[in-house]
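Troubleshooting log. The previous structure file for this entry was overwritten by mistake, so regenerating from the original sequence record. Sequence copied from the archived sheet and checked twice against the printout by T.R.
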Amino acid sequence: MIASLFSMQECFAVVVGGPKESAELLTEKFDYIFYTGSTHVGKLIYAAAQKHLTPVTLELGGKSGPSAAILG
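Regenerated output below.
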């Protein structure tokens, strides 16, 4: 039902790019920003988001562990 009302492009955008693309992108106003990655870049995103009072979710740091542990 939801898919018939909204296209995926209207709901969210996934952006992959380097520092130049990211800096340019963050000058735009968004409804919400979700970021997963480094603490350094997270701080930059947070600083840019506050200029437009954009709510953010930042999932920062951490390391990827094993995807599963299979025992005996």
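The chain has a mean pLDDT of 80. Archived copy saved in two places this time.
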